[in-house]
């Protein structure tokens, strides 16, 4: 029973980004503190402000904004109105204005008219900004995927930032983007109205990672669990965190991708392996979860292809080695026939069977058309290319136990002379 | 094989769309009356769930994947990160996830991006299912909400999810299946070929981040690898589960399910499965290929329930051997409708068999009908595509192309490496294109030759030759568009200099020879060999 509760608790922690990033709340030089200071200032001094949060994906930029806004809302009740836009959804100006009007209406309990034109909406936004300014309320615009708003005419950004130039308004624009050059994408008229404050988010350092792991994995000391169980669980976690092999696992994970979201995905898998009998995490859980995150789909696919499909791949590889810069199914078939004539293997199949195998390879995306536009030609004549490197093919053949020896020889003979 | 799985409770609202999964593992189709039935308690399969053992045994070879997915989905009402199931075609991804939800008995909706072929239909399909809306005659087959933009979709989706979660929360005590609702998106790889695919794909993969409702789980199913989505989604990668192709043992276990005579079928499989496995590992194709072979295998037996002993097995194998080789080379040929019907009715069984065995005899017949003039048109298109245009005059002069001497001399003049280069070029380029005028000229030539040769001419041809130019033109143009629609010819853009549409014939030589034989036309005389 306690173990099931632990599983549920850990899963909900890992899926809740605000909880994850609250680990860094306390440190004074974190982005959280900086952003909070900035916005709290503009609220108390009733001024306009704008800031960009930049950093690679999965570093918790939006989570930091969420945490800050949550806290400020608690500290200054009824003073803050938040409007959230996402570049994926609202990069179109009219659509964005409509969404702003809709969110303002629902926040301030006004009636939203669906039929309003884009001009009406834009006027409404400016009016509302003035009204809110007069009432000493701050409107905070959070623009997620900020770089997508800079495509097109940037009318939305201009009207937003232009409205902020007036003394009466009181608003903050927070742009969040994974492009580090997001401020360079702005037009001149927009850039001049933008305060060039930028906060950079970076992947966590190794000390931060350890702190994050402790924050995520230790059970809280409260009454909901039996105290002996908490002691056992936490000491098990502590033992794992101190283990040398665990450090290796963590290193191999962060060597590929060191972002927090990658770590969370890994931990999510680890927690899914939690043994419900004992209810304790073990190093084994981490070990079994690691290979799942480090799959090589191309090699997996090579293990899955049938013998005939392997023949096709080897033929293509031979053609590439012969420096035929462009080839199609007919030339592959010619190569295949010549192999069959020379070695008289049992795998001599008819044209249409080979064509089907060829189509399977296309479906698996191991090969692809080199010119995706020429649709009018039939498949046999469209030029194709191998999407595998010779090394991958070599490795794939080696690990495929059902691969005939002759095929291996054909490949070795050609490529490693 | 198609009607197995009878021990598993039937589900009234079958959401599967793929024919392979329905023929394989999902429950049989419900009677017509219950097809529109929506379960009263929401989005679950039915009130009876299948047990874990049943689940594992109904999907042989997928044990590890099922347990993995179950672990990731987790206990009732616990939040989850989005997961992506990927693996080649016909590896049981869709049927696994559907059966898992049948086992868990939790609310979910299933959308296939293949049947919902543009963003609007995809969005509306999700919203319809959440609103328990069904398109029917009474509502004019319209959706519950009209929704074209992604921004509207997210707002509407959030509203309807909140609604559904509230409703489920109220009925939670009696159901015991939790209120977490799962959204399953199948065939995600298809989206990459849509217009403006980037935004839809990244929306789909980031929708969990955008919505931020912990009670919603997202499952994506894709036949292409996660690498294929890197470009458009950044690092918001779901947790992945890989479905490898079935091994020989798995396939054996799958084929052995619910066989009437397991011993007999097992001995059949031991002979047949290995060679076919070398060609393809896809279950759906193997199913099609093995079914007629098994009938063949059983033919000498009088009693289908007989348990075969060693000599019988050998006898059966000897009987099957000649068919095996031809079947291997004919794999994946989907039988035409006429032969399928014949097989179903059980009439003319012998005739059918003779066609299957021979292979060569069968190939003499065309399995489609076409008017004689269309056949001539097809042949002239074939000739126009294969022969160089400069030779037309020589081939189709007044004597009707019987001038073999000149062609021979010409080919002997060309040097060998030039020949090779040409052959290479033909291999690469495929059939050539030709303008309409050339096609019509060749058509008239060969049609007139045919008139000379045969006294008894079909009616259509008589009209063509006798009815003057105008009648012929309109008739032929009509046939031409028919051939284009049937994909025997394809339009290949217009020539930049002339501006007229050019055509290309897509039939191969074997097919053209068959057509020629059916109208007794000496095609080989006209093909230019290098």
Automatic annotation (TrEMBL), chain A:
SUPFAM superfamilies noted in UniProt: P-loop containing nucleoside triphosphate hydrolases (SSF52540)
Entry's Gene Ontology molecular function annotations: ATP binding; DNA replication origin binding
Locations listed in the record: Nucleus
The keyword Transport appears for this protein: no
Pfam families xref list: AAA_16, ORC4_C
Alphabetized UniProt keyword annotations: ATP-binding, DNA replication, DNA-binding, Nucleotide-binding, Nucleus
Family: Belongs to the ORC4 family.
Function in brief: Component of the origin recognition complex (ORC) that binds origins of replication. DNA-binding is ATP-dependent. The specific DNA sequences that define origins of replication have not been identified yet. ORC is required to assemble the pre-replication complex necessary to initiate DNA replication.
Protein name per UniProt: Origin of replication complex subunit 4
TrEMBL record, chain B:
Keywords: ATP-binding, DNA replication, Nucleotide-binding, Nucleus
Residue ranges occupied by any ORC5 lid domain in the UniProt entry: 265-313
Principal localisation: nucleus
Domain Orc1-like AAA ATPase per the UniProt entry, residue ranges: 59-206
Region annotated Disordered, chain positions: 1-37, 396-416
InterPro entries, A to Z: AAA_16, ORC5, ORC5_C, ORC5_lid, P-loop_NTPase
Keyword field contains Nucleus: yes
Record's subcellular location: Nucleus
A GO CC term attached to the entry: nuclear origin of replication recognition complex
A GO MF term: DNA replication origin binding
Domain Origin recognition complex subunit 5 C-terminal, residue spans: 370-527
Gene3D superfamilies in the cross-refs: P-loop containing nucleotide triphosphate hydrolases (3.40.50.300)
GO biological process: DNA replication initiation; response to sucrose
Family: Belongs to the ORC5 family.
Name by which UniProt lists this protein: Uncharacterized protein
The species this protein was found in: Asparagus officinalis
